[in-house]
Amino acid sequence: MAAKTPAFETNLIHAGQSPDPTQLSRGVAIHRTSSFVFKSTEHAANLFALKEFGNIYTRLGNPTTAILEDRITALEGGAASVAFASGTAAIFSTIITIAKQGDHIVSASNLYGGTYTQFDAILPDFGITTTFVDVKDPSNFEKAIQPNTKILYVETIGNPALDFADLDAISKIAKKHKLPLVVDATFTTPALLHSIEHGANIVVQSLTKWIGGHGTAIGGIVTDAGNFDWSDKKFDQFNKNDKNYHGLRWAIDLPDALKPIAFALRLRTVPLRNLGASLSPDSAWIFLQGLETLNLRVARHVENSQKVAEYLEKHKKVSWVRYPGLKADPTHKVAAKYLKNGFGGVVVFGVKSGREGGGKFIDNLKLFSHLANVGDAKSLALHPASTSHSQLSDEQQKAGGLPPELVRLSIGLENIDDLLADLDQALALT
Ligand SMILES: *Cc1c(COP(=O)(O)O)cnc(C)c1O
Fold it and tell me: Which helix (H) or strand (E) is 321 found in, with range?
């Protein structure tokens, strides 16, 4: 008997797609085309006026990419999703859909390096400023809210310190102040956490990591939970005539059925359409392939990561380890409230011989690849302070929980004994 609502594992494989009605192909077809033929002048005009939804031009949307968007929407329990060329482009496009010159963001300080630089160094040039706060105390978010604040921003498991965000507590503050909570869920994926159930209004993620899962393509996606009311006057871009789109007031003029996804519609028709960071349909196909095995892979990633973390915790050459799955981890208690299927695929630690020892450790790894990525089937290692987070000052690195000796491991799907043996021989040389 078929369940009414398909289960998560079924949605990973089927949501958003049915066999192609014309060609009958079972696999997802890649629509490698820039443009789509209009049936008539009226059809074309309706599509451009949003009176009818359909394909126009791949920069705005593509049927292969649409399957990915609909599948992620189903997996996150959201209302609509928009794919982008990268996680980074997804984040920037999200911010400028809500905030403009003179506006302000309150963000966790424990952020992916590129996001930190975007908020700290690029957005100020557009007149958007950010106050960074320690995510471990949710009340920090409330204290930092200003009259011009438009967004609260967190990562579920922050990168690289791995502090877990108490979404229930932070979303309560967001609701009280009528602000959208934007959550970067890259490190948890929908296989470990449904952020919308904990009050997220917008979920962004890099598809590049565990969703793609094999280190073969770059992409990002934004999911609109459809649960935020944009009619509060402080959201100018939703309440004043939008010069970017026929003078439309998104929170007022849209038909009621579309009002819940006003954000997703503006995201597609303003930044995606006019700034153009579109995902290639070839990459969309790669991410759909990745999704089919997401649950199976994530289960193995978390199993291996837990074992690596416990191994490092006991190793005499290691001075400290952070993994939300370790009982002693500062955010374990909070993380355990939310994460019922494991604590993610990244472990960070420091060796007793410090920064230099960390460098030696990385240089001597054989099975782990030294590179700047996470979420690959292959195990990876990186020294963030000299690579991904090197744009940050020493002070910013410290505030983001990044000591200079920190080594980040992304634990892959290899046999655990082979992984531990590689760590063991490299640690022996530190
Ligand atoms: C990788 C990553 C990003 C950026 O995504 P790209 O696809 O590399 O642009 C953003 N946030 C987090 C948490 C990430 O790990």
Answer: strand 318-322
What is the C-alpha separation between 254 and 274, in angstroms, rounded?
20
Torsion angle, CA of 369/370/376/378, rounded to 10 degrees? Answer: 10
Is residue 15 within 8 A of residue 75, CB to CB? The reply is: yes
Q: How far is the CA of 20 from the centre of ligand 1 (A)?
A: 32
CA of 346 to the centre of ligand 1 (A): 14
Smallest Cα–Cα separation from 397: which of 185, 161, 165?
161
Nearest CA to ligand 1 atom 12: 112
Of 186, 382, 388, the residue with max ligand 1 atoms within 8 A of its CB, to mutate for a pocket test, comes to 186
**Ramachandran sector of residue 382 (left: φ over 0; alpha: ψ -120 to 50; beta: rest):** beta
Task: Return all residues near 396 (Cβ < 8 A) that are at least 6 apart.
Answer: 109, 116, 120
* Tokens found for residue 300: 């193995």
430 ligand 1 Cβ < 6 A:
no
CATH 3.90.1150.10 in the chain: give the residue spans: 293-427
Q: Class assignment of domain 34-290?
A: alpha beta
Instruction: Give 204's strand partners.
Output: 184, 222
Strands 220-224, 369-370: pairing kind: unpaired
CA dist., res. 191 & res. 345, Å (int): 12
Asked if the 293-427 domain carries CATH number 3.30.360.10, the reply is no
CA pair distance 26, 173, nearest whole angstrom: 46
Residues 212, 290 contacting (CB under 8 angstroms): yes
60-74 in b/e form (b: 16+ CB < 10 A) is bbbbbbbbbbbbbbb
β-pairing, 129-133 vs 80-84, is unpaired
Residue 13 has a pLDDT of 96
At residue 304, the pLDDT reads: 98
The strand pairing partners of 350, in sequence order, are 320
Total Cβ atoms within 10 A of residue 59: 15
Q: Where are the domain boundaries for CATH 3.40.640.10 in the chain?
A: 34-290
- What residues in the chain have per-residue pLDDT under 70? 1-3, 400
pLDDT at 63 (0 to 100): 96
At residue 1, the pLDDT reads 53
- Residue 48 Cα to ligand 1 midpoint, Å, equals 32
